[in-house]
Amino acid sequence: MSQRNVDSDIAEARASRAKADGQRSGGRSDDLKFGGGQTSVDDAMYDAGQAGEFVTEMVESDHSDMDESDDDEVVDMGTAVNKEASPSAQPDDFAELRERNGSGVVNTRISDRESDYHKRRNNRVALDVDSEGNKLSYREIMENQEVEREKAELEEKVRKIREKNGEVAPQEETATTTTTTTTTSSTAAKGSRWDEPAAEEAKPKRRRRWDATPVAAGVDATPAAGGKWDETPSAAPAAKKRSRWDATPAAVVVEKLNAQAKEAKKDLSADPRATLIEQEMEFRNRPMTDEEINNLLPASGYKILPPPADYKPLRLNSSKKDMSAYAAVGQTPGFMIAQTPVREEYGIPLGPSGTEGVDGIPFIKQEDYQYFGKLMEDKNESELTKEEIKERQIMVLLLKIKSGTPPQRKTGMRQITDRAREFGAGPLFNQILPLLMSPMLEDQERHLLVKVIDRVLYKLDHLVRPYVHKILVVIEPLLIDEDYFARIEGREIISNLAKAAGLAVMIATMRPDIDNLDEYVRNTTARAFAVVATALGVQNLLPFLKAVCRSKKSWQARHTGIKIIQQIAILVGCGILPYLKEMVDIITQGLTDEQQKVRTICALTLAALAEAAYPYGIESFDGVLRPLWKGIKQHRGKGLAAFLKAIGYIIPLMEDNHANHYTREVMPILIREFQSPDEEMKKIVLKVIKQCVSTTGVTATYVREEILPDFFKHFWIRRMALDRRNYKQVVETTEELGNKVGAVDIIDKIVEDLKDESEPYRRMVMEVITKILTNLGASEIDQRLEERLIDGVLYAFQEQGVDNAAEENTIMLDGFGVVVNSLGVRCKVYLKQIAGTIKWRLNNKSATVRMQAADLIGKIAVVMKACGEDQLMGHLGIVLYEYLGEEYPEVLGSILSALKSIVNVIGMTKMTPPIQDLLPRLTPILKNRHEKVQENCVDLVGRIADRGAEMVNAKEWMRICFELLEMLKAPKKSIQRASVSTFGYIAKAIGPQDVLHTLINNLKVQDRQNRVCTTVAIAIVAESCGPFTILPAIMNEYRVPELNIQNGVLKAMSFMCEYIGEMSKDYIFAIAPLFEDALMDRDNVHRQTACAAIRHLALGVAGLGCEEGCIHLLNFVWPNIFEQSPHVINACLDAIDGIMVAIGPNYLMLYVLQGLFHPARRVREIYWRIYNSMYVYAGHSMVAGYPRMEDEGDNGYAMTTMEVFI
Amino acid sequence: MAKHHPDLVMCRKQPGLSVGRLCIKCEGKCVICDSFVNPVQLVRCCDECSYGTSHSNSCVVCSATGVSDAYYCRECVSLERDRDGCPKIINLGESRTDLFYAKKKYGFKKR
């Protein structure tokens, strides 16, 4: 319950923060963005999670940046999914859910964010077992599938006939669904997939298997004996559909009882979410009305039984009792053996309430009790069977992994991996898989469990075969997850699974799913198949795919087969080229299939293939050109969109004149579709235009006359700028058109729109202008257009909103920079005006505006210099200098970067304010902890130290040195590197002694990162001032008997040897005694670091006549080969590698030969490892080093070259 | 990076003509040993790792957008590590995935 408290605390804290936010924004709204100090960080962190934003995030789920390939699905399913997701995510609901689930900050529960489409994963049933849990053969599975499909078709027909006859269809529909769900729940106790009745109750599985009812199961039990569904003893031939309901009415009564039992059970859980689910379940499980039953069963011949007089609905309190009652219902309702009172009834809580549980077992969450509850029962180990003990062990490990602390997780993970074979596949997967199906699962938990599967898979290898289908059922949903990481994870598991189980098993298990009735199953199966293909080789799967794509039995199989090819193309990219011809041949006839869906997916697949093959392989597509171009005249809507897409991808592969010809053919249709209201169509049309135009065969005049007018009429309107995807596509297409027809034509048409009143639209215009000018330059632009352009850009820059997101702001800024830079010296006349604007805006009260102004200076500094406006720049420098007191760190960072760019272009000597004034002003700024400030400040200081160090006195530089030491703690790598190299510049300027003193003192600090950076700095100083200035000091420092310092010195030596390279040949004998000492030290970090240093040293002196020294050091390195710690052994082997390069493999061979045939395996192993790496590196030169084998009695080992050759 | 994360897998196919790239964060590193000094030889990737727009400019080490060419350092060249095949990292690596989910749990990162 403490969790609840924490949650409510968090909620309170957030509420109070929100209030505080409100007050602040009342005060100075435009500055809120960088509201200094800690609070602003908090805001940024938590605001991101506020309801409104979250919803958009859910809805958009834009994968494009990470994995473009998935966008190709748009026509097929992507949009549908996204649209479905939106209504479910009401802002208020979501906020509430977020607080209740997951970490309390965000809701990471997977089931809460899933769209209806994704939720269909719960509907899957195991195909390879019948209702009694017996394994079915492949043939039986296929037969079942066939039967199911026939049934569905028949049902469809019946429905149509009924509709035609005017029967009331909707009512029929609801009745059916109701019964379906109720029946399923009744089977839950006996035939659920995971033998986990409790999992069932939270999420109703929609029953799809006709034989899942208890009564019908008998029919299914003997499928081999021809157990066809239509052979059931159906008494009423009139309605075939009824055959599955031909149970005795008792079944219905059982349903009722069952529903009530469930109802009773619901009472106990106080969780509001559970209540929601409950209500839903109650609604679904509500008793059927007589009317409904009459619809299902013939009115005559049945009798309604009254409930027994002593019947009372079950209302029990403990979950255990309830479960037993639940199970008992199926057998003898009314009688039940009383249970032993359970722990709760004595008032003892089930588990300790903290995060730490008993015996190091983590706290079990409420919803996990159904899986881990067993662990809470006190049992004597001696009474348990071996299997039970094993089960408990696995359970503990899984619990540790799922909800333990990171160290617990780590040990749990290691143990479960090490003992995987001992536990066996069955017990492991029987526990892991139900956990993964849990409706309460969160992202991280899923990730951890998936990781377990991955590790276990690796260990179990072919033993997983019986579980392939079950694993696929839980892993396949990952392939269409919204997270890129989840998709990759899914792929990795499936490919490992395929490698473990083998192609034959994979095909046999997945084949039945290919023509599954559920589109969801087919979709995920296709993706999984593609992964299998990439894992096991595409060519191995091609014969199978050929058969599937030509299936005469069902269009679903053809559809899925084609889709598999599409997914393969997306996955392997140009790797399909060797099989391109075959793949296209396989799917060609899909273009003229009778099913619209097959034709569409076929066109999409062609698009994917052509995209992957670009720029090769047009020959392979010869056969499909005709049907494609014919197709665009016949299709409308989605089909047309898919065909156009395919054409768009194929045209760029063509030769020039063909491309031109085919483009002209398709263009009228494209122009017609400009007006299409369908967003999807618009995007595809834009894309196709872009692709057609980019081919060399299409002439500029043609584009200018035929495409441009309509294009601008339909796409350069404000509405297009509002949707992000449209926006992107329009910008890209216009850029491509610009590349073809030249900058002037495009810019002339849109430049006026820079003054449009809609800001998103202005941004779109600016972005296109930026891109076109970057690509083509501004040489074509005449005087008049130039004026209009500058005018528009200035207007757009000044009018941009202050509270935009960062990337939106950069568009205007970049645009301005690009325009000014491309115009170059032609800008001179406008510079005064621009500088005036900048100065004025630097004084603005809004922080964003000030920052933009400073950034702009950075962008145009080079042009100012080119225009000879040195004086103006000096002036700006002084203005910026005056603003160094800026309080907003983001703005200060920009001001520093502007100063840096000015210093860069006008040089140290001419800089105003003079460097000796500027630098002392920067020293205190180095204390600032904001990343942007630190980065820019260090850069600027480093630049000054590099170029103009003599202008500042040594004292000031020392002061800066002290500040820089603090900078080494910075979390950002680039800051660390910048400050480390600044040390080098300063040392060069003022001599190494003082700097070195500071650095060596810094080796004493505790913080590891700080010490490591210090060692790097020492090495850099050694490099820039010569090693002889440093070595005496640090070798002396090594005498201090303290671990950190000695290791620091060794590390510094290691970096130094790496940096100075060949120079180290002069020092090898000087520093060898130090390494000797380190390599004989008891502490293995000493030895590890010394090994690393020797590697660099040896590589540096290779070929410079230092073999003697290297051999000497090798003698000290060699004993470390038996080291156990992975870091030390790696460092040691690296050192040996390095020395091998320096002294040649043959010398090393003498060392290796000593142990290659040692009687102890562990000794031999490492020797062979070294031998192998030598063999890889220098196998040829080792021949000379092979030992001469003396003949022994009858055995002669000598071989002539001729003998070897033969 | 591969040096410090042993679970990262390199592609190791026959390298082609295309030059490997590094992102702003990995810029300047040797793709094998992470050294920042003495870059000597340009990295070449295989065709499959450099196909299409999204792959051709992605960082050899972390798959972010590339900003500069990737190099092998002098030491790795003398150890002939540059001849081991395409050095593009083709998996995500455990630490990155773990980090992603840990971050996601506390909502530090949008997505």
Summarize the structure.
The complex is a heterodimer of chains A (1206) and B (111). Chain A is an all-alpha fold and 1206 residues long.
Structure characteristics:
heterodimer; A: 1206 residues; mainly alpha; Leucine-rich Repeat Variant; 58 helices; 67% helix; B: 111 residues; alpha+beta; two-stranded antiparallel ribbon; 3 helices; globular; PHD finger-like domain-containing protein 5A (chain B)
Q: Could you explain how this protein is built, in words?
A:
- The complex is a heterodimer of chains A (1206) and B (111).
- Chain A contains 58 helices and no strands.
- Among the domains of chain A are: 3-187, no CATH class; 751-908, Leucine-rich Repeat Variant; 1047-1185, Leucine-rich Repeat Variant (Alpha Horseshoe), CATH 1.25.10.
- In chain A, 67% of the residues lie in helices and 0% in strands.
- Chain B has 111 residues and is of the alpha+beta class.
- Chain B has three helices and four strands; from the N terminus they run E-E-H-E-E-H-H.
- Chain B has helices at 52-56, 74-78, 94-106; strands at residues 21-23, 39-42, 66-69, 71-73.
- The interface between A and B is large, with 41 and 32 residues.
